[in-house]
Amino acid sequence: MRVFVTGASGSIGSVVVPDLIAAGHEVLGLVRSDTAAAVLAAAGGTPLRGDLTDLDGLRAGVAQADGVINLAFSNDWSNLERGIHEEARAVQTLATELVGSGKPFVHAGLTPMVPGHISVEEDPNTTKGPVGGRGRNSDVVLALAAQGVRSSVVRLPRSVHQRGSAYGFCTALIAAAQKTGVSTYVGDGTQRWPAVNRLDVAPLFRIALEGAAPGTVLHAVADEGDTMRSLAEAIGEVLAIPVESAPPERFGLAGRLFALDMPSSSARTRERFGWKPAHPSLLDDLAAGDYPALG
């Protein structure tokens, strides 16, 4: 299958693309720079220069592919609303081109937040709050199942990690600890965050592309929920600094999310698709240290 992948050189795309190629697929990857294009080409993919705001480029990518995996997102917390709007326009553009095609369309969403409950695949997307727009974008993708598209959403936890390179939400905790000399958590620190190793994510996107039924939701969750305090303590241990509580405002807009309890399960995904996370947990990656200089 020839697969059009947006965000092909990003944190998740850079592991999804090699997995697809190793499985015998061809990859047409959307990249924003000459450097990213060179990296993608070296991995065996074909670069297509552009980004989520290049709607003509998105249309061109769909026209050349047998399936689409949408991974691109700005992740700019200083202008989250703009990033969600860009994703919405891109999703709608891709959707319009795919209607009636029968092609697979796999979209990267977010695990939902269900107060007092470990979220599961059957729970609806979170459509309110700071990242509610992303849930609405995922709903657009799932609705394509009734319009001749084999659409699916792989919902990711807020902490997609890999030692030495990526830590998801914990990136902000590490950066603050490096800058201030104190490792902090919000409130009493009992709120739980699900997590998954970046290397375990890649095969799940391929599984969805190859065989998920229209309208399927998959959860890329390895750890159902580590407490924020345990994560801060792991960082504090590595950096040999004190661990303290801090108000949500300390982390800006992200602090509103940091205060929420958001555990999630992937039991149904594992049972249905045989997905088995095998790489180190978030706590293991944090305890191993090797943090990039972020503060």
Automatic annotation (TrEMBL):
Organism expressing this protein natively: Streptomyces spinosisporus
Highest taxon of the lineage: Bacteria
PANTHER family associated with the record: PROTEIN YEEZ, PUTATIVE-RELATED
Pfam (any one): Epimerase
Ranges where the NAD-dependent epimerase/dehydratase domain occurs: 3-211
Full protein name: SDR family oxidoreductase
